[in-house]
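protien #1 (seq + structre)
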Amino acid sequence: MTTNQFLDSGPCFTRDDGVQKLPPLSRSDVKPQYVHHVAPKPPPEISLSSLKHKSVKQRCVQFTVAAVICLLLLLLVAGVLLAYYFSSSCVHGVQCGDGSCVWASQWCDGAKDCRSGQDEANCVRLHGSSFLLQIYSTQSQNWRTVCSHGWTDQQGRASCQQIGFSRGTYLKSGRQKTDSHDGYLMAKSAFNPEASILQQLVFSNTCPYNSAVTLRCTDCGIGVNSSRASGGRPASPGAWPWQVSLQVAGSHRCGGAVISPYWIVTAAHCVARASSPEDWAVYAGVVDPLGTLFNPARSVSRVLAHEGFNWLTRSNDIALMRLSKPLGIAASSDIRPVCLPNVGVNVTAPQKGWITRFSPTDSGSLHLTEAQVSLMNAAYCNSSTAHDGRISQDMLCAKETEAVANKCHTDSGGPLVSLKDGVWWLIGDSVWGEHCTERNKPGVYGNVTFFLEWIYYQMRKHQDD
């Protein structure tokens, strides 16, 4: 029997099936297995220089982001401004009435650049009770007086036409000593009748004797023979030579006031429903029904109601009538224009004024009556005891100084005038009067000063009709 050299000589057990079985291992024979553990890496050392580098990098990133945002905002603002610039035609100029635009330097330069001529409108005006001529300068953007040195009647007529009066209405030019710290405008030596007066003036720092031009385009503002009664008394012939009777189909419809040989001022509500010139006849120089027998009926060529007139509120209640032929003012002392209020002529409460209207007499016929009124301030006029907020800036209020019993004053369009510095000025046209049921409420009139530019614009526009 051979011995297996690979068998340990130690004790062993043999199972019955002949398979040897090793005895179990004792606790001391079990040796622990070696487990490999990976030690964690120590945290990297953070130096001060790396912290500074990281901080600078973060600031650079933040600055870049902020710069990009600012740039985007600037581009957005630029886009909005460019869009507004191209959508608004007058960012770089002055807007005409039709929405088109011209350069500011083209305003009042004597050449019509706006389609309807707004750029050359209201460039010449009369100032104050002395009728001082002033012309707007685009260079200095202010009003300048005109030196009388070298001034002639030719320039005077051209200036009146530029304001809106017809060529034949020019009256005279005068002189007034005026100090002008902004300089003067002086007429060129050679007058060109084909050019605008605005193109025939040059700037001058000095003016001989500081003598400026005064200009009278009509012989206006002269009233005669009035009794100046304080109540509603009949007016004498020639007392109020600008008063007219506007008639339709032979009956008096409204009153009006002559402002030039061609033009009548009245109320818009008088003509709003009868806007055809053929409907109207104008009688001047009359105070009673017999006057129509001895005075011719004047025909009308144009009726112009203010485009902003409102029936409900009576705002913009003013209108113009142009006569087919001029009134013979020089030939009759009973027919003369009243003066439109020049810039600087301020007639305010509590100044006195006068109203004239055709009122029924005891016999039932109409007769021109006159009454003194006192101008009321807007605060009182809009109070709850008066017209309760219905009075706007284009209206005036005036209350008769003496109440007239049993009279209802409903004549519309008649003039409200005031005497100042020896001149009669048209300051209002009757919108609605003091009615029997509202005796404590003042009468309401259109504010002619408010409508002055509109009046001159229409006169200029229809100058050659």
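ok now protien #2
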Amino acid sequence: SRVQFERGFAEIEKGSGYLKLANGLLRGPRIGTTFQGTLYDPNNNMDMTGTFMPVYGLNRIFGELPLFGPLLGNGRDRGLIGVTYRLRGNANK
């Protein structure tokens, strides 16, 4: 299946044999995610963390509510419901 995103960005640092991402965000009406970490290093290892937010279009409405929005919405580009994840290990696997 395919998922469309309306917005995506990240700070990228690329060097000899590594790629690091910071302050990453992908968001669309169905899902959203934040991410940061090392996508790969010279030993081809990955160490990424982030938060996956299902039904992102509906989920982030809570952040738009006056007065309670900053508390319920968990900040800009975040949602009320999210699953924190970590990807760590060999990038090929």
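Residues 56-59 form the longest helix (4 residues).
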